[in-house]
Design goal:
heterodimer; A: 358 residues; mainly beta; 11-stranded antiparallel β-sheet; 4-stranded antiparallel β-sheet; 24 strands; B: 461 residues; alpha+beta; 8-stranded antiparallel β-barrel; 37% helix
Chain lengths: 358, 461
């Protein structure tokens, strides 16, 4: 081997070992940190201290649909213990959701209503003599016949199939918001004339009305606040898409009878109860599962309970692309067992993660 | 008139025989300009690369060629003046007297010159032969008989005139040559002494000592003459050789017929080498009982000046290291996640820059220096797991996480010349600056030792 060959060999070796690089870099590990989400305080006089990631505790969060209303929950759990904290959405009918968690806010707890929130009985209807029977569908499920009562707060899709004695039938559907503030607080009123025309208008605050779109049998007919429609000598389904200046929107539906024979269906909101308690907009709920039973703030009178939000930080974006906020809070609430009715008091400092609908 | 084939062939044959070409060098110069120019040799690249290495030993290049020659000539003169060198370079047994030895040397010297000039085989008076026995009793007789006899025999040979003349001078022709005056009285004195009382031991001893001294001076003067002649006649040749870095000079040992002059020569100059080696060493991490093994191949240059030499080179080292590192983090979020990177470095690929000085003694050489390392790459078995679930498991090349790019070793070692251009040796290396950093591994061994055996092929000219 001569000198040139030796140099060539060494340089080739250098080239081989020096140029062979891996394409994919090593995984960059996240920095070690302390537990982020914690729950410290006392429950029924007993001190607790939990941290997500310690002793099997985990922080879970998500958005539940509770009777049609979003419930942003977050829980510390190890499957044996569950400390679930949730906040209902507010301004339910608004198209753009707002974050109900703001630093310095004091949120009330959602208290169980002690009244029927919706009641529509066949016998109480003005044209009850013309109606043979009514089938009530709530959220597309046949729920009742003739009489419908709803006691749980929520937003329900209520459809009534009205069967009249003359064998005619009309179906009217409405979204009913119960226990929450109805921003679109307008009721459709109408008067049927003998000439086959119907006069329609909205009862409510005209200053808060942004727009209205009237439909007859699903065909748009007018955008006036009040109007007269030639409906003919038949039954017609009249709808109004109402938008308020606050950004809330709602579609309301009634049925009119051009024959003036009493085969109409009035606005469902006439059957909604007037609330005497706090609505559940941004209402807080705390549920604890321990020793085999559930304790809940919904089961107790907790008008004195409150949650103070100390800090809100954007923490993460979940798999669905929704923002997750880290919320530091203080809770002082009264709870009751769902099974025994036992009342307990809780005082907690929490750092929980809440995912928010964008 | 029609031509037959034979006639045509005959005409062609005669025409060919009459063809003559006049040689004109100018034609060839013109042809040269027409020839395609020779492509630049790729060898240029070699020397660009080598220049990097040469820069490291550039200090040794500050000695210019003239200085080398001067140094060499002075050195050679100084050694040649010392007549003992000549004696030690002959095959004379130890039990031979000084007179015999010197006579033998003298005769051999003359004979060698004749052989050198004429290319004829010299017939040397062998020690212990009849002739030697005859002058053993009387040194004077040796001076009278042996030298003239040789002179005669030489004068009868087919000699080069210059050699004959010089030989005549060497034999002490006192009448014709001034330089021979030194020899003439000695012969006379010897003659007189030999004619005196032979029984007087003291005189005899004095005689012997005097005779020895005279012989030494005689030989010395001849050596000086020889040197002056050699300097005149050989210096140009020597200069050329020295430019090449070769000193054809023996100070000990002889040519044994197998071209094994390497122990007897002191090389002087710069030469290329190619070296391969194998190493085993202590584990790089204290709590990981995994020794290292390495192969290295490289080249470089050695600049030698007599006993000392300096080496600089470039080599590639393949080190099987088996170093395990891990990186763990615990990240709390909605839950806790344990992330772990396991880096199992199996091999390191290094570029080494060996720098050393060497002391040569016959076939032996001691060397010490530093070996600078640059990490070219690595082979690593990599696993990444999250909460004990392995998510990546692959072999990765070129990663240097947890490693330093530069390292340094101190080396000390020994080499043995198996042949003129082949050295086998061993080094002990101490890792001074580690190539593992403390980022992932905190139990890096401090100054791990390694042993290295190497074989070095040099390209001395």
């Amino acid at each position: 081997m001569n000198a040139k060959k030796a140099i060539f060999l060494v340089l080739m070796l250098v080239a081989v070992v020096g140029c062979k690089k891996n394409k994919e870099p090593l995984a960059v590990l996240p920095e070690s940190n302390d537990p982020v989400f914690t729950l410290i305080g006392s429950v029924d006089g007993q001190g607790i201290s939990f941290s997500a990631g310690v002793n099997g505790m985990k922080m879970k969060n998500g958005i539940e649909n509770r009777n049609g209303v979003a419930y942003h929950f977050s829980e510390m759990t190890d499957n044996q213990l569950i400390y679930r904290l949730g906040v209902f959405e507010g301004n339910v009918n608004r198209l753009e959701k707002v974050i109900g968690l703001k630093e310095g806010d004091t949120l009330h707890f959602a208290e169980k209503f002690n009244q029927t929130l919706f009641s529509m009985r066949k016998s109480e209807l003005a044209n009850a003599a013309k109606i043979d029977y009514i089938r009530w569908y709530v959220n597309n499920e046949l729920t009742a016949t003739n009489d419908l009562e709803i006691s749980e707060p929520g937003k329900y899709a209520v459809c009534g199939e009205f069967y009249f004695y003359d064998s005619s039938k009309v179906t009217v559907c409405n979204d009913i918001l119960l226990g929450f503030e109805e921003e679109v607080d307008y009721k459709i009123a109408h008067i049927s004339g003998n000439s086959g025309s119907v006069k329609l208008w909205l009862n409510g605050d005209p200053d808060n009305l942004e727009s209205v779109q009237w439909y007859m049998d699903n065909e748009p007919v007018s955008t006036e606040f009040a109007l007269t429609l030639p409906v003919g000598n038949v039954q017609r389904v009249i709808s109004a898409r109402i938008r308020t200046k606050t950004g809330a929107e709602r579609l309301k539906t009634i049925a009119v009878d051009g024959m003036v024979d009493g085969r109409f269906v009035q606005d469902f909101d006439n059957s909604a109860a007037s609330l005497v308690q706090n609505v559940w907009d941004f209402g807080v709920g705390l549920e604890i599962y321990k020793n085999g039973q559930w304790f809940s703030t919904f089961e107790s009178d907790n008008y004195k309970s409150k949650m103070i939000i100390d800090k809100v930080d954007l923490y993460d974006v979940n798999q669905d692309g929704k923002p997750v906020y880290k919320v530091s809070c203080r809770i002082d609430a009264k709870m009751a067992s769902q099974t025994t009715g036992q009342t307990i008091f809780v005082n907690l400092h929490c750092v929980y993660a809440f995912v928010v609908e964008q | 008139m029609s031509w037959t084939d034979d006639q045509i062939d005959d005409l062609a044959r005669k025409a060919n025989e009459k063809l003559s070409f006049s040689y004109d060098p100018a034609f060839f110069k013109e042809m040269e300009t027409l020839l395609p120019k020779k492509k630049k040799s790729l060898g240029f690249l070699w020397w660009i690369t080598s220049a990097v290495v040469l820069a490291a030993i550039g200090v040794f290049w500050t000695l210019n060629t003239t200085q080398n020659i001067e140094w060499a000539v002075k050195s050679m003169e100084g050694r040649l003046v010392n007549g003992k060198r000549t004696i030690s370079s002959t095959n004379i047994p130890e039990n031979v007297t000084l007179a015999e030895a010197k006579a033998t040397v003298e005769a051999a010297d003359v004979q060698s010159r004749i052989s050198q000039k004429n290319g004829t085989e010299a017939i040397l008076p062998s020690v212990g032969s009849k002739k030697t026995q005859s002058f053993e009793g009387s040194t004077a007789q040796f001076n009278k008989n042996v030298l003239p006899a040789q002179s005669k025999s030489l004068s009868n040979g087919d000699r080069n005139p210059s050699t004959v003349e010089k030989t005549t001078v060497d034999q002490g022709n006192d009448e014709t040559n001034e330089p021979a005056k030194t020899n003439a009285p000695v012969i006379e004195k010897n003659d007189l002494t030999s004619g005196g009382t032979s029984a007087a031991n003291e005189e005899s001893n004095d005689f012997s000592e005097t005779q020895s001294l005279v012989l030494e001076k005689e030989i010395e003067s001849k050596e000086k003459e020889k040197i002056s002649t050699e300097n005149e006649t050989r210096l140009p040749v020597e200069s050329i050789l020295l430019v090449r870095g070769y000193e054809p000079f023996q100070f000990k040992g002889v040519y044994d017929g197998r071209f094994t002059k390497f122990p007897a020569r002191l090389y002087r100059g710069t030469y290329f080498y190619f070296q391969g080696g194998f190493s085993m060493g202590q584990a790089l991490v204290e709590n990981q009982n995994k020794n290292t093994k390495a192969l290295d191949f490289g080249f470089g240059f050695i600049h030698q000046r007599g006993y000392w030499s300096a080496q600089a080179g470039l080599s590639v080292e393949f080190q099987k290291a088996d170093v395990e590192m891990e990186e763990r983090t615990t990240h709390y979020s909605y839950d806790v996640s344990n992330f772990q990177n396991n880096l199992y470095y199996r091999e390191f690929y290094k570029l080494d820059l060996p720098l050393s000085i060497q002391l040569h003694k016959n076939k032996h050489q001691m060397q010490t220096g530093f070996n600078l390392n640059y990490l070219l790459g690595s082979k690593m078995q990599y696993t990444f797991s999250e909460n004990t679930v392995v998510k990546r498991d692959e072999t990765i090349y070129g990663e240097n996480k947890g490693l330093k790019l530069f390292g340094a070793q101190y080396t000390i070692g020994y080499g043995y010349s198996l042949h003129k251009n082949l050295v086998l040796g061993a080094n002990i290396r101490v890792q001074l600056t580690h190539q593992l950093n403390n980022q992932l591994e905190h139990n890096v061994a401090t100054k791990p030792l390694s042993g290295n055996i190497f074989i070095r092929k040099t390209f001395k000219r």
